[in-house]
User: Fold these one by one.
Assistant:
Number 1:
Amino acid sequence: MSYKLNPYWKKGWIELITGCMFSGKTEEFIKRIRRHQYAKQKVIVFKPAIDKRYSVDQVSSHSGMKIESFPMTNSQEMMKFLKNYDTNINVVGIDEVQFFDVNIVEAISELADNGVLVIVNGLDKDYRNNAFQNTDRLLVLAEYVDKLSAICYVCGGNANRTQRIVKGVPAKWDEPLVLISADDKYEARCRHCYIKPSKE
């Protein structure tokens, strides 16, 4: 498969921004994308189509930062879009990588192998405190990894876990793994204030 890449730009690597919710991942992601846009590089940004919390066609942070993006239903659609894109691409940004299918990891690696800088943003753990799909594999493959932390909603300490809240109490183990929602259903928690979901 061939892509319309700038033939003089042979770098190609993966940058992963990860951490729990409210750790500033999306703000850091947008900041990096904008730096490359300011440098007049050819940049394209993708987001999972299921994430419509703030916008259908923009990546948006909880603080209100936004950047234009293309919503995609899966990695195959994204790669087909790139193959038919009418300009050379230097940088590809992918938001919320944990919500894509598992083939997104191979697609990201292929892009990097072909000279593209791929900047990826995603949660490292789900609300059960288990590794999230795609992010776990990218932790191994990425050349650069930034793991960000948040402030614990309960005690103000260093938070690296995401607590899902349902009707005012921590979600049970059998709740859906993926639940795209606004910030009122999630809290950043430290290891001491995080409550492991009950299986009862």
Note: The radius of gyration is 17 Å.
Number 2:
Amino acid sequence: MNIGNKSVPNTRLPELIEAVKTIYGKFGAKEIDDETVSRLLGHSTSRSGAYKQKLADLRSFGLIDPRGNVRITERGRKVTYPNNQKEEQDGLVEAISEIELWKLIYDKYTKKGLSLPSDFWTDIREWTGLPPEEAEKQVETTRKLYFEDIKYIKPEREAEKMSSKEVGGKIDTSKAISTNLEEQADLVSGLIKSGAYDIAKQFIDFIKAKESKKEEPKKETK
């Protein structure tokens, strides 16, 4: 589909990631023929319009090779079977950066932790060449499609906050000793939102152990 002079994939990125996960989970990075892939993804034939559109959108995000039979790219592997969270996030940003309009929005707003402004239509007008009235009409559609495609991308400042609390993949428990209950709750909430459940659990267990030691009755000395 087009928004002015900018092209945007018809299929949203989270759905495409699920398709890549299915293909890579069965075949890895091997080259697969269209008929096999189309059946794997639930299409009756590789000649179906829906399948061809899905392939075009996978290529738009750089998740499969740009031509020939289907082969998952390294980027496709990173967003489906990453070695760590950073690799996954890097792959997601690389993917949306392939879409020119999404890259413009991401670089100007999302990357800096900024919300899209009320006069966002002026950006659309500038970036897509649409006249003002048409640009205003495209605001809601653009917002909806963009936010669906960046659904799994976490704000950089949140990742930085999380990494500053980690030491070698584990929570830096020395940070917890001087924090109050409100700060501890904020930290746990931030870790959970970031998907760092194991680290959040480790932090909670540490706090419980520390509080338990405080409550232990002192043994009487004879």
Note: The longest helix spans residues 197-215.
